[in-house]
Design goal:
Chain lengths: ~350, ~350
């Protein structure tokens, strides 16, 4: 069941994903979005696709599964969690090589559930590490939605806020509305209000002025894919927020579960950036035409924030400088010593 | 007659301003907006208010006119052209001191028309000076609407683009949509399309990414009030565009008729910044609710861009560095030598 994020905040509706085609459609149409939630959905999509394979033997099973994996992988280009989840599920399949196909099918549902369960625990650990960065009374800015709706639990960017609030710190959050799809207005403000966290919605244009007025103490955002050097791909506009934060001496943190860090990519220049339809610009949420008919639009869905603007990356293993990210895949590294 | 900018681009409708109360309402409700257009409307509002004064003598006329001037002045706080226009009209009244009231009333309509006529010529000169900054093939970013709709003629920020195009330069324009009121989407893209200038609409979040990708050659924006030191108050988000432009080594120009430069203000810190209703954030153009009921919003209508981010200020007298603006009111200054 997928909580339909296109319908929020006006309608709380669930979409039953009864086959992998529905999972593909929900990712592509953004009924589910947010890098970790996309990963979880893809994992469950693999389990659904496997269930419907008719081949009785292992080799036939793997072969018949491949087109579904390709289709899931092609739903959206930027979030690395999609590949991470599909790879994980296929490694799991390989680990069961030679076992009866029906047994593999059942085990894949359990593995997909583990992806979700682990995500919840990862978010909580991001919250534990990140909440240390938030002092009592802090005013936090976030962009887009890297909250519960984007993940399996506390959210990524919101986890430090939620844990700080649980610990009794009085915090307030500014949520960028995040055009074009308004995830900040529709989702972040909704879920923080539901959790009783003080939230103020602003237009994306306002973030800089509030920073300059001294009304923002730190920024925490999520990421769809972070490269090994700490370059961060995230929702369009994140780069502007990061540059403004540095210009105003405000720390800028990225909450990144390890599944969103692509250690195979040397820098953000290699990250594919999705361009979406013009209609998202001129027709707001499909409900309001705001520009003249026939207007030409550009709609970059993500941007890349160079590592130099990033104060720290909050992972489930601790908070690290972008330049130290590579230590996370170095078995000889002393992670404790590298922590920010 | 005021072209209703709230109804654009879907409806082209005119509002007859038959008394100064209607002029006040049109400024306050933003049926007319843009600093120079506000100034012109205020000048015409003064003429309308004067027409309806019943006092037969000069002293009574001036006294009876005062409440209307106060009401016009209070319509919006940030644009200095409002005060500039009202002051100009009242200096004109003082110049006719002792003349028959009916003669003054008639002359005020002529003076208001001169404010409009002069604005058209000022815009043209801004275009002549500014077009020299735009090379053939240039890609120009603008924010909000400082076009024909905001002024009496070529616009301020758009005048250099229009004159460059008239001279045969092939230019293209990126228009920030400019939340919350979407003047870029509704007005700038509309008027540039009408003029046959190539325009691409983008979300405010996209400006930084396009700059970083090398797709923008220069920025030109308007201003609601520029202080003597070159600090620029303009539509919210301008500051973010300016910081991103400097970060990417892209020249950032402000088109500022002298009427929008407040030489009485030492710096931008003194400029009053209007905060408008929360509804403009959560209810887009009064037509689409995009946030949960009861959400708290902040809605700064303008921000201040410090002079250090401004490459040049394009006036009807030429293009100047912010630090040289004060020369424009120095009778001993050599303006030719100071030009950028």
């Amino acid at each position: 069941m997928i909580l339909d994020q296109v319908a929020l905040p006006h309608k709380v509706e669930y979409i039953p994903c009864t086959d992998y085609k529905m999972a593909c459609r929900c990712i592509r149409e953004m009924n589910v979005r947010g890098a970790p939630a996309i990963g979880i959905t893809a994992a469950m999509g693999v389990a659904l696709a496997a269930r419907d394979v008719s081949a009785p033997d292992y080799a036939g099973f793997v072969k018949e599964l491949q087109p579904a994996l390709d289709e899931l992988m092609a739903t959206r280009p930027t979030a690395v969690n999609l590949r991470w989840a599909i790879d994980r599920m296929m490694e799991f399949v390989e680990g069961m090589s030679g076992r009866p196909v029906e047994e593999i099918k059942a085990a894949l549902f359990e593995e997909a559930q583990r992806v979700l369960d682990e995500d919840i625990e990862i978010n909580r650990m991001i919250g534990v590490h990140g909440s240390a960065l938030i002092r009592d009374g802090a005013r936090v800015l976030t962009h887009c939605n890297a909250g519960s709706l984007a993940t399996g639990g506390y959210g990524t960017a919101t986890a430090p806020m939620r844990i700080a609030a649980e610990k009794g710190k009085r915090i307030s959050v500014f949520a960028d509305e995040t055009r074009p799809l308004l995830q900040g207005a529709r989702l972040t403000s909704w879920e923080l209000m539901q959790s009783g966290i003080d939230v103020t919605l602003i237009t994306d244009n306002s973030a800089g002025a509030l920073m300059r007025k001294g009304e923002i103490d730190l920024v925490i955002v999520g990421t769809d894919r972070t490269a090994r050097n700490g370059d961060v791909a995230n929702k369009i506009g994140t780069y502007m927020v990061a540059v403004l934060a540095r210009e105003n001496n405000i720390p800028f943190y990225v909450a990144a579960p390890l599944s969103s860090i692509d250690f195979t990519m040397a820098s953000g220049d290699e990250i594919p950036i999705e361009e979406r339809g013009e209609d998202e610009v001129y027709n707001i949420c499909g409900g309001l035409m705001v520009a003249p008919e026939g207007v030409k639009c550009r709609n970059l869905a993500f941007d890349v924030t160079p590592a130099k603007y990033v104060t720290g990356i909050i992972t489930q293993k601790g908070v690290f400088r972008p330049a130290d990210l590579h230590l996370l895949v170095d078995p000889a590294a002393d992670l404790e010593a590298a922590k920010l």
